[in-house]
Amino acid sequence: MDNFFSVIQGLDFSKLSRGLDLSPTTLFTALVLVFMIIYGLSLGRTKALISLLSIYVALAFDATFPYLEKLYTLLPVTEEMYYSVRVTLFLLIYLLVFIILSNSFARSRFTLKESSVISVGVISLAQIGLLIAVITNIIPDKIVEKMPEYLSAYFATKEALFFWIVIPILLLIFIRKGKRKNATE
To answer: Is the pTM of this model over 0.70?
Structure first.
């Protein structure tokens, strides 16, 4: 447990406050974040969890898809389009899995029906962070370098991707524990 806290203590949040300004990029990013939060809350409790699971499935598919090179040879893809095709494939798999799970028997199994709006909002934020981290780890470095440093430090590194993968799982564990604790009282 001490190792876990030392990792958290090792995070440098000074980049966040140092690089924060009211530039158009920052305002646009804040607007997109607010839109995504509203979208996540409007999905509802069950679909938020299904959407989170769909991201994990799409991420696993992206990491293990063995025919990516063959896909590039079949499509007239230039080197600049390589990343666009990969992001598009990731998003298509995400949407496909989301639609399948939303219309399957699994929908009743994956539910946060007794969770508060705040916990659904937190799950939605974690879901947005995971999506941003996955996409910024797919796109080329020359595009990531154009992002503000306070964003790229928390989304565009392999360590950030790892934390964004783990955070929703930990949140779900704590939400479940809270539900069990409230049920026994």
So the answer is: yes
The answer to the question of residue 75 being in a domain is: yes
- Asked whether the beta carbons of 110 and 101 are under 8 A apart, the reply is yes
Which domain does 92 fall in, by range? 44-184
Contact 131, 55 (CB under 8 A): yes
- What total number of domains does the chain contain? 1
Q: Is 15 exposed, middle or buried (0-12, 13-18, 19+ CB in 10 A)?
A: middle
Half-sphere exposure of 4 (CA within 13 A, CB side): 5
**Sole residue written with tokens 């969890």:** 49
| Between residues 124 and 94, the one the model is more confident about | 94
Residue 108 lies in a domain: yes
Burial class of 120 by CB neighbour count within 10 A (0 to 12, 13 to 18, 19+): buried
Q: Could you give the residue ranges of the DSSP H alpha helices within the chain?
A: 2-9, 14-18, 24-43, 45-64, 68-74, 82-102, 106-109, 117-138, 141-144, 149-155, 158-184
Place of tokens 């409007």: 42
What pLDDT was estimated at residue 182?
Answer: 53
Evaluate whether residue 65 is within a structural domain: yes
